[in-house]
Amino acid sequence: MEYHVPVMLDECLEGLNIKKDGTYIDVTFGGGGHSRAIMNKLGAKGRLIVFDQDDDALANAIDDPRFLLVPYNFRYLHKFCRLEQALGADGIIADLGISSHQIDVRERGFSYMLGGTLDMRMNRSNPLTAAHILNHYEEKDLLILLSQYGEVRNAKRLSRAIVQRRRQAAFSTISDFIEFLSTLSIGNRNKYLSQVFQALRIEVNDEINALKEMLLDSLKVLGPGGRMVVMSYHSLEDRLVKRFFRSGNFEGEVHRDSYGNTDLPWKVITKKAIEAGKGEVASNVRARSAKLRIAEKL
Ligand SMILES: C[S@@+](CC[C@H](N)C(=O)[O-])C[C@H]1O[C@@H](n2cnc3c(N)ncnc32)[C@H](O)[C@@H]1O
Question: Between the chain's N and C termini, which has fewer beta carbons within 10 Å?
Answer without folding.
Answer: N
